[in-house]
Amino acid sequence: MENFPVINLQSLNGEGRKATMEKIKDACENWGFFELVSHGIPTEFLDTVERLTKEHYKQCLEQRFKELVASKGLEGVRTEVKDMDWESTFHLRHLPQSNISEVPDLKDEYRNVMKEFALKLEKLAEQLLDLLCENLGLEQGYLKKAFYGTNGPTFGTKVSNYPPCPNPDLIKGLRAHTDAGGLILLFQDDKVSGLQLLKDGEWVDVPPMRHSIVINLGDQLEVITNGKYKSAEHRVIAQTDGTRMSIASFYNPGSDAVIYPAPTLVEKEAEEKNQVYPKFVFEDYMKLYAGVKFEAKEPRFEAMKAVEIKASFGLGPVISPA
């Protein structure tokens, strides 16, 4: 198996640009994941994000997680647990409107740092979308515009901690899934591993690297590229030692954005064979995804295609609101 793709963004400036763009292209086409170094977010700032996230978990969430585990009897399980994940999480929303000021138990310093982190990640996400446009032969700004909707993109962060697990073979840190949205930017623990992606039928470790940002592609980019780029199935394996920190930020389409394959990326052959991805409103996809997140993505695409066909005959929506 070839090495997991690690991309130095600084090498875009200068003679290494062509090779770096080729590396990004290969990662998008064959992995759905890559790891960024020299991405422009200062290392001292990332150290502060990590310190405050770990302090917040210790002070506010660790005991709650232990109580949850005890109440559900998870430490003594004898058979595989398929309806829960071994993770402690909370969510922050940045766009279209931030909720950081309303999230309980966050110290002011942590709130301010996470606001600043979101701005830096938003800028990085939009830079990456333009690099993807360049590789795909799309006009600059095409992907950002495709995500825009009425009120701009949706952008939020899931802050997770994966504590030591006594039975990692019976309960996953996070069950296998693809991400529903657009572009995911992950700042993860550099000491405790656990994230894996499925490539060519094998589970491959995403290597923990200090100060890196892991990028993965969501289902919406697979649709817009008509399958040229694919979202990759991934999971988190719980560990017996150490708590793994994971801060995943999701740069997604706006809820009312209409998602469909970019016309220039739909090859004539695909059209003739009816191998064109569906057209749908992002919010409708999310309603469907909510109930089937841990199942294969292909039936989701087929279900959205059925909605599209039915709508074209004026028969109304197939999916009722959740």
TrEMBL record:
Q: What class of enzyme is it?
A: oxidoreductase
This enzyme's EC code(s): 1.14.17.4
Molecular function terms from GO: 1-aminocyclopropane-1-carboxylate oxidase activity; L-ascorbic acid binding; metal ion binding
List residues of the Fe2OG dioxygenase domain: 153-253
State the Gene Ontology BP annotations.
Answer: cellular response to fatty acid; ethylene biosynthetic process; fruit ripening
Is the keyword Iron assigned to this protein? Answer: yes
Which stretches are annotated as coiled coil?
Answer: 107-134
Q: Does the keyword Metal-binding apply?
A: yes
What keywords is this UniProt entry annotated with? Coiled coil, Ethylene biosynthesis, Fruit ripening, Iron, Metal-binding, Oxidoreductase, Vitamin C
- Extract the InterPro entries matched here: DIOX_N, IPNS-like_FE2OG_OXY, IPNS-like_sf, Oxoglu/Fe-dep_dioxygenase_dom, Plant_2OG-oxidoreductases
**What does the record give as its pathway?**
Alkene biosynthesis; ethylene biosynthesis via S-adenosyl-L-methionine; ethylene from S-adenosyl-L-methionine: step 2/2
Complexes and interactors: Monomer.
Q: Which protein family is it in?
A: Belongs to the iron/ascorbate-dependent oxidoreductase family.
Q: What is this protein called?
A: aminocyclopropanecarboxylate oxidase
Organism of origin is: Eriobotrya japonica
